[in-house]
Amino acid sequence: MGMTIESFKERLKEGILDGKLLSTFLRAEIKQKVEALTQQPHLAAIIIGNDPASQMYVKYKQKACQQVRMTSSVEILSPEITSHELADYLDQLNQDKEINGILLQLPLPAHLKELDVLMGIDPSKDVDGLHFANVGKLHLGLSGFVPATPGGIMQMLKHSGTELKGQNVVVIGRSNLVGKPIARLLEIEHATVTQCHSRTQFLSEFTNKADILIAAAGKKHLITEVMVKSNSVIIDVGTNSVDGKLYGDVDFDQVKHKVKLISPVPGGVGPMTITMLLQNTLDAFNLQNV
Ligand code: NAP
Questions:
Q1: Is the CB of 147 under 6 A from ligand 1?
Q2: Which of 51, 143, 151, 278 shows the smallest number of beta carbons within 10 Å?
Q3: Are 187 and 165 in contact (CB under 8 A)?
Q4: Which is nearest to 216 in space by CA: 233, 196, 200?
Q5: Which of 23, 24, 21 is nearest to 11 (CA)?
Q6: Annotated catalytic residue, options 105, 155, 167, 279
Q7: 279 lines ligand 1 (CB under 6 A)
Q8: What count of other Cβ atoms lies within 10 Å of the Cβ of residue 257?
Q9: Span from the CA of 229 to the centroid of ligand 1 (angstroms)
């Protein structure tokens, strides 16, 4: 375990925020904690319909559960399921004492209203942090489940020793899953946060002033060399698949030499997201078994 964190620190010296190495380290820690429990935490995943991407994401998450000795199950429900039927199914999982975390893989079929459906998950099992009880807690600065991607970004910043207090942070994106929660988490740590989105005019005027830039727009190579501040820290959240290859929102090859630290795609935020889902499931187990 010591080896991986040392390798992570070596990569920092090269200017790379290596989410894969940090994940390996954190997952080993989680595994140790799980092995010390008398019972294994259980994550229940639900997929609605047969979207191949959703099936692939859930498979990664199940594999990660296995790695840290947690149990997981997956239920594939009909794409025609009604909101009532789904609410009943979620309620069964809510009542089931053997299940600690519930993960509803998004997106949902168009006839289901995402926010309404998510409210059917017991907030104490809402390991994706999307129930409004957990969203509200985050806004009030209270402890609750934080969505895995922003949670992972905070861990990356923390383990890289990046100062947040008083820093100018620019977040590109304002989704419920990434943009909004990461902006709140950074503000709680006393950063000065500016949130940009698709209607922002003159994006580079903001990004050029960013000591820390979080790019979560989902647009391949939106951020180029001229748009970043020298010696800044760049977290690239974007995963844009073009002709079977994965690209970030940041043009890594152009930007890398100019900045202090940058997270790569793949191998940056992606593995950290899954790691934080594991951490949230362990936290859920511990909170339910006090
Ligand atoms: P989303 O719901 O599509 O939100 C994208 C946000 O970016 C929106 O707020 C949008 O503005 C803004 N935006 C789009 N184009 C822009 C532009 N040209 N300039 C400035 N802002 C722009 O996506 P998301 O769920 O937040 O995810 C963002 C990206 O992160 C995607 O590539 C996704 O695949 C990736 N992601 C990766 C992980 C991981 O584990 N690595 C996890 C989650 C997401 P409006 O609000 O005005 O539309």
A1: no
A2: 143
A3: no
A4: 196
A5: 21
A6: 105
A7: no
A8: 9
A9: 21
Active-site pick, 126, 128, 249, 283: 128
The H or E element that residue 236 is part of is: strand 233-236
Classify domain 148-270 by CATH number: 3.40.50.720
Q: Is 217 in the pocket of ligand 1 (CB under 6 A)?
A: yes
Bridge partners (DSSP) of residue 218 are none
Best residue among 17, 177, 235, 237 to mutate for probing ligand 1's pocket (most ligand atoms within 8 Å of CB) is 237
- List the pLDDT tens digit at each of the 290 positions of the chain: 668 999 999 999 999 999 999 999 999 999 999 999 999 999 999 999 999 999 999 999 999 999 999 999 999 999 999 999 999 999 999 999 999 999 999 999 999 999 999 999 999 999 999 999 999 999 999 999 999 999 999 999 999 999 999 999 999 999 999 999 999 999 999 999 999 999 999 999 999 999 999 999 999 999 999 999 999 999 999 999 999 999 999 999 999 999 999 999 999 999 999 999 999 999 999 999 99
CA 203 – CA 103 distance, rounded (Å): 34
State how far the Cα of 93 lies from the Cα of 96, in Å rounded to an integer: 5
Whose CA is closest to 264, among 5, 16, 21, 23? 16
The amino acid sitting at 128 is D
Query: For residues 130 and 122, what is the distance between their CA atoms, to the nearest angstrom?
Result: 11
Ligand 1: residue whose CA is nearest its atom 8: 173
pTM over 0.70: yes
Domain ranges of the chain: 38-127, 148-270
The verdict on whether 61 is a catalytic residue reads yes
DSSP class of residue 124 equals G
Ligand 1 atom closest to the CA of 265, numbered from 1: 41
Tell the residue number behind the tokens 């930007």, with chain if given: 255
Cβ neighbors of 25 (< 8 A, separation 6 or more) are: 1, 4, 5, 8
